[in-house]
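Inputs:
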Amino acid sequence: MFWNLLKKELREVLTVSSFIVVIVISFVYALIGKTVGNIETEVLKKPMVAVVNFDKENLGTIFEQSIANFVQIIYSGQNLQEGLKNLQQNGGTALLLIDQDFTNSIKSNEKGKIKVFWLLKGLGLADTISSSVFEKLFENVENQIRMVLMNQHGIEDPHFVLDPIEKVDATFFNQRTFEGLSPSQLLNITSSQNTMTSVVMMMLIIMAGSTVIASMGLEKENKTLETLMTMPVKRSYIVFSKILAATISGLVMAGIYMVGFNFYMKSFTFSSAASLGISLGTLDYILVGVSLFSALLCGIGMSMFLGVISKDFKSAQTMTFPLTALAIFSMLITMFKDFSSLSLPLKVVIFAIPFTHPMLSIRNLLFGKSSFVVYGCIYNVILGITLIILITKIFNSDRLITGVSFGRLKKLGFFGNSKLQGPGV
Amino acid sequence: MKVVEVNDLRKSYGNFKALKGITFEIQKGEIFGLIGPNGAGKTTTLRIICTLLKPDAGTVKVFGYDLLKEPQEIRKVISYLPEDAGAYKELTGLEYLKFIAKFFARDEKDFQQIVEKGVQLSDLSDRLKTKVSTYSKGMTRRLLIARALMISPKLAVLDEPTSGLDVLSAREVRNKIKEFVKNGGTVLLSSHNMLEVEFLCDRVALINNGEIVKSGTPTSLKEEFGVSNVEEVFTEVIRCSGTC
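Outputs:
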């Protein structure tokens, strides 16, 4: 009987339309990722530049030779118009115009002039990558010139004079020292994976949750639930099959989302966490999966509870608000604050919200705090079971037909139209 | 043989007393009608008998099974059709019948027989292969009547069985109910349609403000009030309720 119910519930939640929505969202994110492109590749790519050198002396030539090590020179000559034309045709980054008095000025203790004609392709974040990379390379070339000058002034080791101090980063976090990493580097490594889990979890709760709430509202409106409850089937089966079907559907959606988000997040990834000794193993991924499943179970349970107390399909739709708000709050708080840096009352609140556990799981597992993830899973499973028991109790009482009274909350209109109502009398 | 025994049944929703101690019995092979104005307590009575609501006081027995002690046994022998009910829109008509049949079938052969009976009762032929979401109200009601009767329940509880149906469809449904009783079933129904009640019911109970104010066969009630049809009986009873 349970399988009969589960099969029916799966048919109800795993509809073509629900898949289309998820696939489209996933595809859009993948497309954004593809459009933005891989930042790491962009950073490593040599900028294309045109060089117009009017200086006949040695420093102009040294500059041109030095820059050739860091950029791809697409034009080298003495015609500015031709240089600009080449730059535009090849989609280069900049044209460097070396002044005819470049060497002479420096030798006379005056600054040598190099004019940079930038070719800006757009005002998007990714559009400025090559120009910002080029700025750094320019600094390097400047150092080369400095070294030549220092040599000419009799300094034996110009490398040392230019770089006398070595800065070695070491970041202490979570009882562990990360050698060679600054806090911002550490944040970059973890935030990409963490953001993905948070966003996917939030979207899942909103989508799967509203599906369950709407389904319960529809069942009440169509009286299909009333019919089912007069049949020789355990009410706990009815509750559990509904929750399990929605959770399975949620996990399928999670898989589709993950694929789309993976493409999206790749475009923002700077370094591989694995090369720095911060990565997840198989057991960690299993824990993330369990955490996701248990949070989904709680989310569906909460949705079902809200669906049970709704009067019909219309009032069920208003019930999605508290769940959506909770999912968004969980995502934002876990993205902007680390659990360990929160005050005790806020820690309790965050721990009590089941959705925060998968959102925090990757960050915790990356830093070896697997016990926190395990405790989160245990808490979620207990909460999920409690919710199932509570809903089954409502199913076994008159409340499913007569509505659930919430005293003050109802007076405040918090639950929309879900007022206690006479059941047709 | 007593199919349903209701004794001093009471039910309140907050301060509102929906049922104030109603008592009636239904014999095997009867079509028993509960008639009364809106809010009289008809649906509450049906829902209690079908194990959806628990009574505050009084006793209900269905085929000897106590409502509070053996609700699961009652669910095995009844079939309930709520007023204005729908079916699962993502399923086809046939899938819906199969889904319900699985709860009652003892084995595969029994399952096939139940489904076959459902297909015949619904009279929807090829439309059974399309999704319920594409059905008209009349088609959905036919599917639901078929669903309720295909399992050959010992007691069919039908809340406004012909509600919202056109004349021909309503007549068809009434004939199916008659046929069901001829084959040994028992029916408890509620209706606003007095002509339907007169045509279908062997006995009726008139319910008003949570109390049964009159009961008997349509013929005896008509004779008692000296009127020509049940509608006039109903009007007289409701007008005189508690005063005449």
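Remarks. The beta strands of chain B are 2-13, 16-27, 31-35, 57-62, 65-66, 78-81, 155-159, 186-191, 203-208, 211-216. Residues 167-182 of chain B form the longest helix (16 residues).
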